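#onboarding

Welcome to the new folks! Below is a worked example of what a typical request in this channel looks like: someone posts a single protein sequence, and someone else replies with the predicted structure as tokens. Don't worry about understanding the tokens yet, we'll cover that in week two.

Example request:
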Amino acid sequence: MKDCFIESRAGRKRALQSGIMLVAGLTGVLLSSSIASADDYRLGVMDKLKIRVAEWQTADGTIRDWSVVSGDYTVGPSGSISIPFVGDMPASGKTTDAIAQEIGVALQKQFALKDRPSASVELSEYRPVYLSGDVEKPGEYPFAPNLSVVKAVSLAGGLRRADAGQRFARDFINAKGDAVVYMADRARLLVKQARLKAEAADQESFETPKELQDKPEAKALVASETALMKSRKKRLTLQLQALDDLRALLQSEVETLGKKTETQSRQLQLATEDRDKVEDLAEKGLALSARKMAAEQRAADIEATLLDIDTNSLKAKQDISKANQDEITLRNDWDAQLAQELQSTEAQLDELDLKLQTSNSLMSEALTQSTDAARFDNTSGAASIAYSIIREVDGKPQEIPVQENTALQPGDLIKVTAGLYMR
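Example response:
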């Protein structure tokens, strides 16, 4: 009996020691997880947890250690952790406190326990962050509290540097020189395109293209194209006016010839009547043959004059028709020329856009091969280091622009892009 009492006391002592150790462990858990719980940290895939479970047995005042359940766990790809006697338990999106309560409830229900087991869940290791883009060593890196973008980039060896033997300056200057020429040509073509569209719409002026409104060289380009537009418009107007004047002159000639025709027609009628009278007298022997011949000659002359007038009138009408056709041809040629020039201008713009893309890509590539890219700046272009993170928001990945000092969260993917933007 005494041995049993001693054994019982020893067991209680061990249980009490175990309880003290468990309480100490719980205190350590609270301290180590304060960062996560303070921010109400939500678990995610690849987070690692340390779980401890114990049960206070009221009947005999002892603590039972659930060593089978206690251990290290990792949130799997499905977002769950697999716990003995409980099975798969969803963990992604939940806090450690919530997981601890669910474990206790699940064990109590599974074994129909009077006292609910007490579970503690410690976040032993955060899920990693990932770096991609223009860094020396892209890849997966462990997360730590207060990790910022610039700290993460330093873990990856910093920005990508040029390999030995590369001539960044030469490559950049060559590409930049081409880009400057292409930009100047493109600005000129954009203004020309605006002028051609205005001419095609029969407008008196055109506005500066939106892309060039803030460019200092736009005013001179617009002034030059406006002067050309006015000159072309004046030339076309003079040509059309000349055709209008010619038609008016010919129309006046037709009207004059018409009046002459009326006059000559009356003269012909009188000459014909006189000729007929002379012929009657000649047949009766009362008129001389010379008079008869003179009357016939006069009538013939008037008929010839009428024929000439009709011929001239017909020619004038043909010239009017030709003037009308010349106006139609002039307008059609004008429209065709505008359409051809506009098509050619747009084709040149497309070609320049491709060349600019190539030059900008070459400049960006040259810049990303050098850490000097972040400090490069001049009047025509500037290099920049852009940071963004891809983070899961409401269950969906979302890309968010960030700065160097932006605080990261576990699981973030940091994208580092060294690029070039033209001013």
